[in-house]
Amino acid sequence: VRSISLLGSTGSIGVSTLDVVAAFPGKFRIVAMAAGRRVEEFSEQIRKFPPLVVSVEREEDADRLRELLPSYRGKVLSGAGGLEACATLPEADTVVAALVGAVGLSSAYAAVKAGKRLALANKETMVVAGELISRTAEETGAEIIPIDSEHSAIHQALRAGKSAEVKKLILTGSGGPFRKRPLESFDEITVEEALRHPTWKMGPKITIDSATMMNKGLEILEAHFLFGIAPEKIDVLLHPQSLIHSMVEFVDGSLVAQLSRNDMKFPIAYALSYPDRFANPFGELPLAGRILEFEEADARRYPAILLAREALTEGGAAPAVLNAANEIAVAAFLDGKIPFLAIVRTVADTRAAFGRRNSPQSVEEAREIDGEARRLAAECVNRFSGARV
Ligand code: MG
Q: Residue 103: which pLDDT band, with cuts at 50, 70 and 90?
């Protein structure tokens, strides 16, 4: 039985993780669970999967939780300390890192430091502190199994050959809702339009990242740090059907692809069951009559991919700055403060304003870089606020 600490249980990945746990009775148990501010939903989850320890963001919500669950016998914690306690709980062998954004970094780092298997849905962790996390995992022997569908696909495909035989990784992306929209009308894109993803149902932050394709940019960075593959060996290919989740090309010309339904339960189940595979209860993928299309990602349509590649080439703190600026810009767009095109402009301007710095050597340094980049990004947002770009 794998014992799981689930960080970010009320988000989209968290809910799917609990579905996976429920679908395989006797294989997994939840020993710790952390959530943000959705206390009512969280209390329902605790009732269903009573863990040893739970944690919420704020102490007042911890009090509310104790009121809602008078007969719960586990510990109710809060804040950064509570999150860390969940991430390092001795009874947990696996930590599912499903918090959204850079806030997930310290708990993911704590889990790796404690030698846990990290089932990683939070790609920002690898983008912000990829070097630090990879190095620490090597020291402690912690396994990192990605939950991001592309990286799960690559993790699976890489098992088909030796690392010296890998020619390149091919990250596939749907192209988001604006793959065919005329470029002249990009300045009129609304929040509602950007939230309408053609193939995946996900949280708002990642859905906007899919519309700009910053998501694919972050995934290039994530792939580089996860698999130790050189930037020039990581390609992006548009694949509107999202049936192939990514591929590995080997030196002999063979391409190994992974396909499954567009449902995050598949990569979650893989990360939890690895190196085994459990019988699939989530439905088959009917392929007869299906068409697979591929096209190049147009740099004018998706400048975010180029920005991410530049950050990877520059190295140092650049990926962390890119990520922080993007989080601020996406939040401002979702709030209706800046237009769609200003998201990428905010990221580019923040990168320019930040200058060069070394990569973070500790969580504190990562947090410092992140904070400074957010401050600069907020200034850019104010400049773009209400403007047409
Ligand atoms: Mg992905």
A: confident
Is the backbone of residue 175 left (phi > 0), alpha (psi -120 to 50) or beta?
A: left
The residue to which tokens 């009129």 are assigned = 188
Ligand 1 center to residue 267 CA distance, Å? 10
CB contact set of 94 (below 8 Å; sequence gap of 6+): 2, 3, 4, 5, 116, 117, 118, 119, 272
| pLDDT at residue 389, rounded to an integer | 57
Provide the residue count of the chain. 389
Question: Taking the CA of residue 74 as centre, how many other CA atoms within 13 Å lie in the half-sphere pointing to its CB?
Answer: 24
- What average pLDDT does range 200-227 have in this prediction? 93
On whether the CB atoms of residues 348 and 389 are closer than 8 A, the answer is no
Measured CA to CA in angstroms, residue 359 lies from 71, 126, 242, 256, 311 at distances of: 47, 12, 33, 33, 11
Summarize pLDDT for 110-142 with one digit per residue, the tens: 999 999 999 999 888 999 999 999 999 999 999
Cα of 218 vs centre of ligand 1, distance in Å, is 9
Pairing of strands 75-78, 255-259: unpaired
CA–CA dist 5, 46 (Å, integer):
12
Q: State yes or no: pLDDT of 269 exceeds 80.
A: yes
Strand 2-7 relative to strand 28-34, pairing: parallel
**Residues around ligand 1, an ion, CB closer than 5 A:** 148-150
**Measured in angstroms, how far is the CA atom of residue 333 from the centroid of ligand 1?**
21
Distance in Å, CA 123 to ligand 1 centroid: 9
In this predicted structure, the answer to whether residue 388 has a pLDDT above a threshold of 70 is no
- pLDDT score at 179: 96
Main-chain dihedrals φ then ψ at residue 215, nearest 5 degrees: -55, -45
With a CB cutoff of 8 Å and minimum separation 6, the contacts of 311 are 217, 221, 318, 319, 321, 322, 351
Least confident range of 10-14, 152-156, 169-173, 198-202: 198-202
Give me ligand 1 centre to Cα 386, in Å: 31
Nearest to 95 by CA among 111, 109, 73, 78: 111
